Amino acid sequence: MINGIDVVGHMKLVDGQSINKSLVLDEVEIAKARRLLVHIQSHDGPVMKLYLWDQAARDLCKKFNSYENTPTVLLVTTVNTKTLGGTLALTSMSSSRVFMNYDVQPTIDYFGWLGSNPAIAEQVNAEVVTKRESMTIGDFFSYIKEESAKEAFFECTATIDDVVHGSAWYYIACSGCHTKVTKGPTSLICTTNKCGKVNVDGVAQYRSKISVYDNSEQAFFVLLGDAGRELTGKPASELGNGNQEDDHEAPVPEALISTIGQRHKFCVKVTEHNLSSKTRSLTLTKTLPLDTQPATVSSEGNNTTATSEETSKSRVDSAEGSKRTCDSDEIEEAKRHKCGN
Q: Measured in Å, how far apart are the chain's first and last C-alpha atoms?
């Protein structure tokens, strides 16, 4: 990995969208996400993925929208280089600065070169631009250990070998914000600042944990919200009496037992909790069939697996506080029942 280099090139995609005259970036959403993905090509080299974080993402968004004509040339200073899933990736640092088109001499020079080589501007390496970030479980844990690691979405192929026993399979959530509710004297109460309501309608939301493995490592995936239903084909309300808050263990639901032995492509989220505590429990955001084709140019967003993850982001974030994590010490202690036990 090389740290602190400057990169200049012409943009192919910004926030998953092709460069065109009508492109306007959503400043509010990008500020909320705190990240922005740009596909950039330097001269006639390969298309690279440039991940801009926090201030750099906001600066690019604001500068991009300020241009009367859509900018094409981008210079970002002091970026890190790394390989994610076999693909070269660049990530901004807190000291990174963003420049475009005629801002500084390097972008002016590049803009002139690009105008003299229009054929280069039209070239697209489709394999690189459309490739999902596919990693092994071992890659996940290596990424988490990096000092520059941030929240991100990745994809892996793994086999389910067990269902973690000893905790509830779902929780009762507020129908509005999907945060776990508390029991009042006569009703359910949502205590979040977003709602803060009494007499809320409670809905069952997945909070289950499965054990998975690939050729490199073993990990736990936490099923939250729609990710659980996608895997089992059943809503959380049909899992049976698994929302127990006392010491009595509920039997493993058949819908979860039936997933043991299945092999899938999984989209998972590396969260701030993973980065701070190094837990081996990763949040599952989506289950994909093994024959899924790569994402199209127009569908790839500002994360490594984009659209579907962002659609469910609010539910995942709301449930994060409710899930029970399992770190490396817990792996040895977790009580897990195999199918048929």
A: 47
CB 219 within 8 Å of CB 282 = yes
Please state, in angstroms and rounded to a whole number, the distance separating the CA atoms of residues 324 and 168.
10
Task: Kindly state the percentage of the chain with pLDDT values over 70.
Answer: 72
The answer on pLDDT for 321 being more than 60 is: no
User: Going from the N-terminus, what domains does the chain have, and what CATH number goes with each?
Assistant: 5-130 (2.40.50.140), 137-288 (2.40.50.140)
Q: Record the pTM.
A: 0.52
Indicate the pairing of strand 152-165 with strand 202-213: antiparallel
- Does the pLDDT value for residue 135 go beyond 60? yes
Whether the pLDDT of residue 7 is over 50: the answer is yes
- Distance in angstroms (rounded) separating the CA atoms of residues 131 and 51: 15
